[in-house]
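User: Design a sequence. Structure:
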């Protein structure tokens, strides 16, 4: 009797498993890099960060010119005056390095924060698209070695991102 119950339980389990696996999966893929590169928010931000980077470089360039000017002046001074000006020169050089380091870190932090925001936007649009269109799986196109073009939902995602960014 125990063997019969075990056998019946096993058959029921197999039947339910087959039924669960018989559902056809709806799969799509997105060329994530293309979406990222063509997303207007990405382009806009790249312009902003490039402008900030140029401004910082200009500030650093002016500071370097001050240091070079002082260096030339120090070379023309007498020994006693030279020592005093060398201290100023060392302080300026130290300030320059600190300014350069801080500028780099500030830009990197801002870029990383914006990158995270952009990636979250894309991920949110993909998740909403998948739920709305009953997809079981949407893959990153970079991971797909072969895929039928009908599974590529990149253009749909790009359209949705464009609409979202306009708002």
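Assistant: Done.
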């Amino acid at each position: 009797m125990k063997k019969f119950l075990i056998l019946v339980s096993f058959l029921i389990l197999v039947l339910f498993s087959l039924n669960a696996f018989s559902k056809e999966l709806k799969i799509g893929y997105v060329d994530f890099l293309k979406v990222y590169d063509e997303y207007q928010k990405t382009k806009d931000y790249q312009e902003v960060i490039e402008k900030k980077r140029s401004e910082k470089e200009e500030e650093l360039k002016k500071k370097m010119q001050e240091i070079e000017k002082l260096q030339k002046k120090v070379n023309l001074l007498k020994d006693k005056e030279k020592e005093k000006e060398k201290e100023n020169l060392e302080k300026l050089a130290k300030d320059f390095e600190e300014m350069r380091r801080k500028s780099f870190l500030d830009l990197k932090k801002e870029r990383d924060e914006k990158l995270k925001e952009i990636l979250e936007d894309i991920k949110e649009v993909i998740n909403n698209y998948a739920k709305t269109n009953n997809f079981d799986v949407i893959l990153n196109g970079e991971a797909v070695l072969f895929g039928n073009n009908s599974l590529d939902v990149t253009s749909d995602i790009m359209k949705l991102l464009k609409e979202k960014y306009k708002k």
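The longest strand covers residues 27-30. The mean pLDDT is 82.
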